[in-house]
Amino acid sequence: LCSWIGSSRAILGPKYTDIGSSCSEAMQLLAEHEQFAKVCLNNETVIRRTQNVGDRLISSGHYATGAIKSQM
């Protein structure tokens, strides 16, 4: 998640510091920000689930434990 946010920062940063010049523009920016927040939360959920699966594989002695650890 952190790397995704970092790579998106250059694109999204300037857009998410704008407050708009009218009420309708501000409302549109707010809607875009809320959508971005939802995407972040969804990505966090996927990352946590993936990490949990990796942890379970490692703790069960999976044959690819070394490769799994290097990806986490």
Description:
Helices cover 76% and strands 0% of the residues. The chain is mainly alpha-helical and 72 residues long. The protein has one domain. It is elongated, with a radius of gyration of 18 Å. It starts with a helix and ends with a helix. The model has no long low-confidence stretch (mean pLDDT 82).
The count of β-strands is: 0
State the secondary-structure class: mainly alpha
Give the percentage of residues in beta strands: under 5%
User: Biggest β-sheet: count, sense, barrel?
Assistant: none
Helical fraction? over 70%
Mean model confidence by pLDDT: 82
Distance between the termini: 12 Å
What's the layout of helices and strands?
Elements: H1 2-12, H2 23-59, H3 65-71
Protein traits:
single chain, 72 residues, mainly alpha, 76% helix
In short:
The protein has three helices and no strands. It is mainly α.
